[in-house]
Amino acid sequence: MDLQDKKVVLHDMSLRDGMHAKRHQISLEQMADIATGLDEAGMPLIEVTHGDGLGGASVNYGFPAHSDEEYLQAVVPRMKQAKISALLLPGIGTVDHLKMARDCGVSTIRVATHCTEADVSQQHIGLAAKLGLDTVGFLMMAHMATPEKLLEQARLMVDYGANCIYVTDSAGYMLPAEVSQKIGLLRAELPVALGFHGHHNLGLGIANSLAAIEAGATRIDGSVAGLGAGAGNTPLEVLCAVLSRMGADTGIDLYRIMDVAEDLVVPIMDQPIRVDRDALTLGYAGVYSSFLLFAKRAEAKYGVSARDILVELGRRGTVGGQEDMIEDLALTMAKQQGLK
Amino acid sequence: MDLQDKKVVLHDMSLRDGMHAKRHQISLEQMADIATGLDEAGMPLIEVTHGDGLGGASVNYGFPAHSDEEYLQAVVPRMKQAKISALLLPGIGTVDHLKMARDCGVSTIRVATHCTEADVSQQHIGLAAKLGLDTVGFLMMAHMATPEKLLEQARLMVDYGANCIYVTDSAGYMLPAEVSQKIGLLRAELPVALGFHGHHNLGLGIANSLAAIEAGATRIDGSVAGLGAGAGNTPLEVLCAVLSRMGADTGIDLYRIMDVAEDLVVPIMDQPIRVDRDALTLGYAGVYSSFLLFAKRAEAKYGVSARDILVELGRRGTVGGQEDMIEDLALTMAKQQGLK
């Protein structure tokens, strides 16, 4: 793979996906310090939003220490070169949230949907594009759709106005060959920029990012020090080191971003970010993290291995919101295994 | 990459490379518990030796809680299916150590040298082969030799009697393409089994192992929970999950090895195994870990960045034992940079 002088735009998630790992309790000062450090290191794009996107503050998704507006107002004016992005999940974030983010100086809006539900993004992508924002369609749990289905969904987002489409490995399930195949098809068929967002559940965040770049993605997400839920995101300072070794052009000062990771991000972690048993299980099964608790409860009740339940849920393509099926599945498996 | 039904022999390093991370203070009970867990999970090969190999117990390399003989006697008789290996570095371990290991029931001897010094392995490889042991030549810091040089050195070890040759990425510096190239050349030219030993400094332990398997390696080293110095080794339970997803045949029960990692190995860690700043620096520069302290001292004295010093040492191919050159280099760099 020859990445010599290849331009790659890195996008930091530590202040958005990292909000999950911090149960949304990052202080304004921490947020501003980390963003400033990233800005000085040359990071071109930094996402600042509730972990579940604009408007996520709620009983369901967790109340953050500060509102999206407060975080954005604390960060945006301090940036010398970095642009700030906000994530928006239709159904959680609204057009008013989007306008608020624009008014705060956000330059990139990423509208995220499940990989087969791009049609719910029309209004928000349309508005973001109309407002002249860098508008990204973000297809989550992308391992759950075939390349052809992803392409169909990506086309919808492009038609709505997106100028960039992301393949998002929300579960940290994808293997490099799958990343290559999916990004490769989108690259061949779409006239817009492509991005890849990886999680590290199978220890493949770096390798998948390289596969994505090779297949034509030019934007790559990661988190400084990997800060994110579970196994975390692709660790961005490690990816920077690898890209530097390969001669790619990220515009980032490697030592500075290493120092942001070690001196600013690691010290605020509530626990080490690592591929622990739960994170590995979720990545292996390819399921929503919300399934884990239900599967463990079903294991306690029916004696069927929670891991077997999760793998079967992954095989069946069960999606978020279908958690009530988990107990039914566990009961069926228990009967098959002679446990009930 | 198609690994369906491909046989891969995994080799656990947690009780040898892991000795570094534990400053050689693993108790006999911990060692026996972890080895028993690995045996029950189906791990075919487990290395049990001082971190620096047989005879490592010393002021220089650290005194372990117990002797190699005590560790081996605590582990070998408990194994139901796993074979035990011992590492031997000529100059540290002797033929008497080798015979002791054989007498304790070790079935595999791995004779390790710097990648350009295979000629010092003749006596030990010859003896191990003569004793009928599975005899492995282990070429360390393999990123510091060209593929052709590695082949030449591997041929020496094969001529001495090795039935398996390892490409060992001691510094965690190699990128997948380099692994493919080096293993590929050895596979094309040598009549023996090949192995790969990876470290996780650049977050590429899993990806490099996959590249090695694709290029023809059939033995792959890793450590449960990554237990090893610095960023640790390729995390073995994560590699197992990935290989399982790809359909490879490792003979290992994935859930059991995940449980060994989480329930037995993580609890004995003195600190989390992660790609911290120092580990990333070493992997990026491709130098011996012993250089780190010298470079930091030189930074304090001459004002030249320790990281720049290490990268330059890597570029020059400086090897262990040349630590006295570090101060000279720092002084030269300080003059060039107008600091002195």
TrEMBL record, chains A, B:
Active site positions, chain numbering: 20
InterPro entries: 2-IPM_HCS-like, 4OH_2_O-val_aldolase, Aldolase_TIM, DmpG_comm, DRE_TIM_HOA, PYR_CT
Positions contributing to Mn(2+) binding: 17, 197, 199
Transition state stabilizer, annotated site positions: 16
UniProt binding sites for substrate: 16-17, 170, 197, 288
Signal peptide: none
Domain (Pyruvate carboxyltransferase) ranges: 8-258
Pfam families to which the protein is assigned, alphabetical: DmpG_comm, HMGL-like
TM stretches of this protein: none
PROSITE patterns tied to this protein: PYR_CT
Gene3D superfamilies documented for this protein: 1.10.8.60, Aldolase class I
Reactions it catalyzes: (S)-4-hydroxy-2-oxopentanoate = acetaldehyde + pyruvate
EC number: 4.1.3.39
Keywords: Aromatic hydrocarbons catabolism, Lyase, Manganese, Metal-binding
Family: Belongs to the 4-hydroxy-2-oxovalerate aldolase family.
PANTHER family: 2-ISOPROPYLMALATE SYNTHASE 1, CHLOROPLASTIC-RELATED (PTHR10277:SF9), HOMOCITRATE SYNTHASE-RELATED (PTHR10277)
Protein name stated in the entry: 4-hydroxy-2-oxovalerate aldolase
Organism taxonomic ancestry: Bacteria, Pseudomonadati, Pseudomonadota, Gammaproteobacteria, Aeromonadales
Gene: dmpG
